[in-house]
């Protein structure tokens, strides 16, 4: 059986993520080369997301508000799973802000996990509010299913994927839109140097004959499937060719060590495979199933699931166990007992920073000022410059008294963020340079770049590394604290070294690289599952002289950190594979743009471009500015059908534009808050209402209800984050829309339902919007719908004839 493409073309990236990022040598001022990034996988036509599903109660009894939410979810899952086996994932949690318990369930077949067999059940007061289900519904196959039917289904899936890739390549090459994605100008003149990025395969690489063992071979050996993936994932043609030429040598050097536990659990044994080419750490491997749909059938395929950390990528890949080894799906993450919480040092002095203050997006908008460290008793109880020795990556090299718990630092090193330079663009970071303010904790450094010619531009930018790292540390910590206050806390997977005994997995603060030397004109964020450090890489931009520093444009930093937010909240903190491609991957980009734009906005409405300062381009790095004016930004749901809109960034800007319009509806109704930060908590931990929250309400039993932001912009941020928690893994635009509307139902009783529908429908995402023939790349034919429920009909619109009813019986008015 031959692969879809020959081995000479395997240095490849697939369309879903091809233009996610760029990289280049700092000694090369020519065209920026693109960082290769793979991202593709099946679309599951049987997957569903339902709000307000029929309830399942014990012995036909009415729901009880005091019922254990996990018991409610299990009873519901017993019915919904139709007898299939499953387990409740340990990253399930109750959101203390909303009272909703998010229960994540993973399917088991033959005692093994189905990696994409997920059920997310959202429970409150004994009621299942919503749920999603992507369980495999067919009969259980053999452990190694090499039947002709399974092989045929997968071959059809791969063939269709390959055809769509070719079509997208053709339409993109013919497009003259010249979209800039984090700085890379993807026009026809620059396509030729990166032609190999488009040439790839879904099925497998044609290995030299001496290595091929035939399509009937089956083995549990992870080495060949992994090496097969590395040939495709290798960052360059040369690296792929090297693996092919030394295939036997690399195969013989790879070594696996498997973890086996005394007490068995649902997850399969975890392997660590060392000496893998093009990687920077041992590859993690598990044996699982994945679902492969094609032609109306879905086959369950046994795979090795790999976690592969490279210099520029961090992949989660599924490769078929049986030969020839097919790459079925791949996502680029480039998204025990509580410990008693000792009190932070009472005499700890707060730091100060000379920075562009929160709300100043970039140097063109204002001057630097001295800002104070933001002590927030909820978000950062120990401040920004303290962490326990036990959670400190540097602690082994430090002398400390055995009685000491906290380490107070004088550099840009703390519990939430490790910020430093990375001029060499390497993976090492613990000992990289970072400014040291000494006991004064006054991070006050000069920033006054002068005009230079290109030969001195890099050196000029590096002169101000202290100011740059300080700014990155300040912005990143504020993003941490802001998102924490809106519900991105320990149990939901936020980024902290120490979790203060409040749940979740620790030792995953953000590693923030300033002026990263692996590229120009870009930024990226890698989001592994909870308990592993997120990694943010910020680059210089050679778009002006002197070079512009992405670390100083807050919108870019916020966009990247928001990848960590949306990836950890969607599908649960232990599942980082939910936003990999198509509409889901696009929304991962869109949330970043929306939140960055919302944070920089003011009470005086304005249109905003993304990345305009760094790119030295008034219209920014997207196709359009974010605007209420349809002449300035005409994007609707159907815009995704246009040539050039198959990449995740283009999809994302449509989603961000829709959210921008929705948020303005809420602002029109509720007004605008000049600060998105809630009031500082009191000494007893309670949060004063101030002018931020509505007066606290209580249930009949005296239990406080969730605090509700009173202004439109703060409310929109809250609903967007709450919606991420409710939506399923691999959500569509429809799923995310419905989750936001349900988030409002939970938080406010649905008082903003009409404003939300009016906002979504005004950009084509009304209740009857649809997509026919949706594909893994996000393809298909979309139909805009400008309808709203009849109850939401604006009073100013004249009475119109009764419209047809939708499938649920609700009437809609077309506007």
Automatic annotation (TrEMBL):
Domain FTP: 91-135
Biased composition (Acidic residues): 805-815
Residues of the active site: 560
Family to which the UniProt record says this protein belongs: Belongs to the peptidase M36 family.
GO BP terms in the entry: proteolysis
InterPro entries: FTP_domain, Fungal_virulence_M36, Peptidase_M36, Peptidase_M4/M1_CTD_sf
Entry-linked SUPFAM superfamilies: Metalloproteases ('zincins'), catalytic domain
EC number: 3.4.24.-
Record GO cellular component, one term: extracellular space
Region (Disordered): 791-815
The protein, known as: Extracellular metalloproteinase
Taxonomic classification: Eukaryota, Fungi, Dikarya, Basidiomycota, Agaricomycotina
Organism: Plicaturopsis crispa FD-325 SS-3
GO molecular function, one term: metalloendopeptidase activity
The record's free-text note on cofactor binding: Binds 1 zinc ion per subunit.
Matches recorded under PANTHER family: EXTRACELLULAR METALLOPROTEINASE MEP (PTHR33478:SF1)
CDD domains named in the record: M36 (cd09596)
Residues at which Zn(2+) binds: 336, 559, 563, 589
Top-tier EC class: hydrolase
Cellular localization per UniProt: Secreted
Pfam families per UniProt: FTP (PF07504), Peptidase_M36 (PF02128)
Position of the signal peptide: 1-20
Keywords associated with the record: Hydrolase, Metal-binding, Metalloprotease, Protease, Secreted, Signal, Zinc, Zymogen
Cofactor(s) listed: Zn(2+)
Main location: secreted
Gene3D superfamilies for this protein: 3.10.170.10, Neutral Protease Domain 2
């Amino acid at each position: 059986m031959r692969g879809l493409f020959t081995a000479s073309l395997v240095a490849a990236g697939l369309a879903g993520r091809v233009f996610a990022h760029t990289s280049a040598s700092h000694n090369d001022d020519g065209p920026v080369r693109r960082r290769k990034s793979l991202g593709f996988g099946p679309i599951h036509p049987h997957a569903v997301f339902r709000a307000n599903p029929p309830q399942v109660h014990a012995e036909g009894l009415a729901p009880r508000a005091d019922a254990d939410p996990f018991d409610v979810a299990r009873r519901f899952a017993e019915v919904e799973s139709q007898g299939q086996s499953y387990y409740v994932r340990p990253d399930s949690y109750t959101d203390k802000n909303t009272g909703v318990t998010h229960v994540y369930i993973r399917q088991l077949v033959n005692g093994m996990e189905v990696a994409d067999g997920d059920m997310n059940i959202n429970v409150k007061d004994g009621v299942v509010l919503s749920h999603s289900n992507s369980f495999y519904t067919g009969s259980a196959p053999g452990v190694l299913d090499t039947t002709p039917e399974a092989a045929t289904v997968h071959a059809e899936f791969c063939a269709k994927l390959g055809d769509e890739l070719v079509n997208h390549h053709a339409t993109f090459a013919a497009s003259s839109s010249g979209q800039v994605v984090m700085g890379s100008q993807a026009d026809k003149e620059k396509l030729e140097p990166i032609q190999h990025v488009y040439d790839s395969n879904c099925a497998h690489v044609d290995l030299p004959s001496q290595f091929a063992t035939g399509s009937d071979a089956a083995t549990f050996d992870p080495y060949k499937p992994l090496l097969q993936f590395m040939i495709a994932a290798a960052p360059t043609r040369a690296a792929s060719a090297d693996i092919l030429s030394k295939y036997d040598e690399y195969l013989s050097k790879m070594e696996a060590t498997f973890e086996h536990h005394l007490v068995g659990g649902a997850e399969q044994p975890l392997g660590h495979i060392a000496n893998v080419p093009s990687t920077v750490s041992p590859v993690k491997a598990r044996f699982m199933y994945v679902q492969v749909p094609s032609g109306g059938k879905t086959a369950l395929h046994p795979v090795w699931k790999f976690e592969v950390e490279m210099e520029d990528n961090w992949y989660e890949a599924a490769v078929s166990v049986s030969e020839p080894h097919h790459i079925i799906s791949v996502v680029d993450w480039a998204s025990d007992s509580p410990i008693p919480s000792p009190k932070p040092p009472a005499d700890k002095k707060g730091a100060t920073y000379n920075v562009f203050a929160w709300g100043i997006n970039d140097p063109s908008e204002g001057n630097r000022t001295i800002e104070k460290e933001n002590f927030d008793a909820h978000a950062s109880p120990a401040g920004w410059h303290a962490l326990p020795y036990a959670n400190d990556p540097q602690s082994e090299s430090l002398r400390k008294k055995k009685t000491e718990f906290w380490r107070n630092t004088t550099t840009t090193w703390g519990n939430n963020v490790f910020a430093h330079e990375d001029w060499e663009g390497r993976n090492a970071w613990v000992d990289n340079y970072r400014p040291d303010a000494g006991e004064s904790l006054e991070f006050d450094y000069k920033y006054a770049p002068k005009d230079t010619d290109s030969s001195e531009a890099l050196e000029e930018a590096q002169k101000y590394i202290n100011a740059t790292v300080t700014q990155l540390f300040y912005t990143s910590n504020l993003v941490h604290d802001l998102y924490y206050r809106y519900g991105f806390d320990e149990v939901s997977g936020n980024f902290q070294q120490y979790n203060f005994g409040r749940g979740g997995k620790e030792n995953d603060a953000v590693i923030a690289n300033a002026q990263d030397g692996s590229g120009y004109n870009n930024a990226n964020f890698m989001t592994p599952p909870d308990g592993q450090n997120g990694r943010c890489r910020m680059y210089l931009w050679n778009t002006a002289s002197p070079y512009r520093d992405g670390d100083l444009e807050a919108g870019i930093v916020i966009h990247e950190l928001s990848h960590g937010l949306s990836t950890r909240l969607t599908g649960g903190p232990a599942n980082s594979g939910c936003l990999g491609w198509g509409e889901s991957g696009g929304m991962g980009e869109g949330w970043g743009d929306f939140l960055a734009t919302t944070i920089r906005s003011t009470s005086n409405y304005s249109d905003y471009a993304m990345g305009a300062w760094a790119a030295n381009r008034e219209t920014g790095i997207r196709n359009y500015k974010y605007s209420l004016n349809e002449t300035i930004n005409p994007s609707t749901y159907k815009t995704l059908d246009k040539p050039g809109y198959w990449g995740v960034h283009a999809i994302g800007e449509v989603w961000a534009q829709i959210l921008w319009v929705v948020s303005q509806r809420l602002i029109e109704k509720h007004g605008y808050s000049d600060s998105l930060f809630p009031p500082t908590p009191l000494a007893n931990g309670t949060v004063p209402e101030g002018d931020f929250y509505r007066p606290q309400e209580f249930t009949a039993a005296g239990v406080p209800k969730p605090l509700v932001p009173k202004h439109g912009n703060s409310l929109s941020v809250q609903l967007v984050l709450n919606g991420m928690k409710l939506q399923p893994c691999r959500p569509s635009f429809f799923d995310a829309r419905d989750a936001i509307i349900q988030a409002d139902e939970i938080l406010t009783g649905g008082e903003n339902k009409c404003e939300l529908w009016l906002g979504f429908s005004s950009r084509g995402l009304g209740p009857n919007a649809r997509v026919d023939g949706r594909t893994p790349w996000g393809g298909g034919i979309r139909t805009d719908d400008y309808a709203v429920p009849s109850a939401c009909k604006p009073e100013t619109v004249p009475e119109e004839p009764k419209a047809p009813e939708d499938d649920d019986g609700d009437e809609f008015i077309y506007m």
